[in-house]
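User: Hey, my collaborator sent me this sequence without any context and asked if I could get a structure. I don't really work with proteins. Can you help?
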Amino acid sequence: MPSTGRREGLRRHRRALFAVAVILLLAQMTVAMVTTAVEQTPTIDEPVYAGTAVVYVQQHSLRYNPEHPPLGKLIIGAGMLFARPHLDPAFRGDQTELGRHLLYESGNDPWRVMLWARLPVIVLTLLFGLVVLAFTRDLVGRVGALVALALYAFSPDVIAHGSLATLDVPASGFLLTSVWLVWRARRRPRLYVPLAGVALGAAVATKMSTLPAVPVLLLLAVLSLRYAGRAAPGAAPVDDGTEAAEVRPPRSAAVAPDRAGGALRLLGAGAAAAAVMALVAVATVWATYLAVDPRLRWTSPPDLPAVHGLRALLVDLLPLPQPYRDGMRVQFGFEDTVWQGFLFGRLYRGSLWYYLPAALLVKTPLGMAALWAAGTTVLTAVRRLRPAVPYLLLPPAVLLVAAMNGSRDLGVRYALFVPVFLAVVAGCAVVVRRRWAGIGAAALVLFVAVSSLLTFPYYLPYANEAFGGPAETRLRLHDSNVDWGQDLGRLADRLRQEHPHEKVWLVYKGAGVPAAYGIDAADPRTVPPERVHGLLAVSDTAIAKADARLKALLAGSRPVDDVGHSITVFRRP
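Assistant: No problem. I've predicted the 3D structure and written it out in structure-token form, which is a compact way to encode the shape of the chain:
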């Protein structure tokens, strides 16, 4: 009995340590995201989403930003209920003008409005961390769950985008939640299949880029029901590598008279589960639109891009609201546009199929990449974990292939699902029962933590040590990888503190209004070069995409300061 008491005490002690570790990891992530949210000015997309969210909650209108479904902006709108910004109901500009009008022309404090817009996304990002924890714990237990949560909580990309009023983290998190619930449907399908449908619908109602994952999730539902059917009462256990033994009917003539009939029944049950999941997902998408406007008032814009072929067939067949399908047409129009890209110092037009893998290579902490590789190896090699392979690797693989074929080489945010899903995969590395494996995993997690903490609070321009760190990301990548307009406020502080009363010229790429932050600057491209003297502040993306005129101005200038690793300050004699 005393030994039993000691064992129970040890278990309680371990549970307490586990809870403390989870709280500490999420607490540091909270500090990182809130600090980042407080210090950063609006990125390029945020004013559009914030303005649209205010229109949703105050005017119940769907007229803005149809290219993205409403759910992510409704989440942002939850913060706007507390911020209560003023917006003229008679305003009728486009969505870019709407964001500028809300933040800078309506008497609102842009710092306060943006903080409240970002806070709901921060909370949701933390909740998705608990999904990462729970999913990994289901697979490999507490130690692996802590490894996965640590990688998620210290991921510079997750922190950077989880602290913004944007849609990338919510879409990725909802998708992971759906996969986790489908995995759990192997045990309790009646409970978890509908819940997985809600989470899948939430992902699709946040970003249309999650649509390629829908057939994958439906196939996973069939797979889960196959397992659940084979685990019916009266079956004998068989060890196929899952945590609990899977079952198959005993080889008794009385119990297994018709294998073909049993297989058909399992297939029918799987198809029914997939149908339920699809119906719930569709209902969830409809519910988000009705939550904005119960009457679903919508007029298709006159300038909608024309779509043809398979695209047109897909748009016409989807049983989703008309504004969603019109938004798909807008997205297809974006895909038909030729964009500029920048990779490893090369500016180009169009897109490169290898852009996202290359950008992920630059922006993923080295220890994290090593644990991703180790976890993938273990997941595929260890027999009891192999059933999880299609759940954890197939959805991000399909989405990554789809994103690699897109036309916009603008940042790893288009593949943010990769660090979210692979955090769970990396947690599986602890299954290797070797002392060196545990020490190695702990060392790699520590390496990730140090790399992440050293970049605080400049997470958006993060690059790993092999590529020179955050200070040199601008030499290899551009746009939301480095400079998304987030440091206008920091530039204002730097000019005020270290360069007071100097003439300032500014080439800024972003959605902020410099004068609103106390920056009195002119655009040097609007005057003859010989008139440009003093300080020249240039967004690093503008440097990467510089035309001949800006290149000439930079050639005659000397760099004297760096702001947030996204704006370089030069001095022109």
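In plain terms: The first strand starts at residue 236 and ends at 238. You can pass these tokens on to your collaborator as they are.
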